[in-house]
Model the fold of this input.
Amino acid sequence: MAGPEHRAAGFPILLSRHLPGKMSISPEHKPLGKQVTGSLHTLSPIVELNVGGEMYTTTLSTLKKHPGSKLAEMFTGQPKLRTDSEGRFFIDRPGTYFKYILEYLRSNQVPTQCIQDVYKEALFYNIEPLIKQLEDSPQIFGEVVARKQFLAHVPSYSENIELMIRIARAEAVASRRSSVIVCVVRTEEDAAKCQDALNSLDMDKKSVVKFGPWKAAPSIFDLLDCIQMDVEAKGYKISFQPHAAEKGFRFKSQDYFYKFLFTWW
Done:
């Protein structure tokens, strides 16, 4: 008669000991398959990402390397990301530049290509050490530290850029080009000199966009270059020239008045 360890109530009992030559698979070594979305604490340490259509595979520890970053926050606690049809976590950002972000997280290697674009992504993911290192590069230092800080001293600079564009678009009906008159004054004294001319243009119903005055070293021509750069960055084709002197002006109008030409086709 079979012993109780082999049979009970007529049913065979499976032995608990391992068979020779067989190896049990621990949960840590099971294949990843689709990622678990219930809690990030249950995720495999290997994470698959879909960043704007570009696929990446990395580790959870790499993504959480800088705890204060937005990227680390995405993968801490309850999941904050959607998944694609294959179960990969989806981030709706340009995937092309994420490889530089990932390389920095893996090896602290600061990118030397696509600096401006990578800087934008570093700002989005709030990776402070990378942001600071990129701001030390000549490309970002010149734009952020020098030019942007200068423009911060020019009152209503961004609003005036938008006003220029609105005026140009309003005058573009059935025209190949439209023009906008700009008055640029660096000091309060310059502003006082221009007031009569501004009044005269206003009486003639001519729209003028006034920039300045400002307290910073760059010149009027430096500001004119900035205006052209920022309007062109929005996709417009423009050029500028001194505004021709008109009757009644008591000074050379080209010292302060310029005409920006928008070419539409």
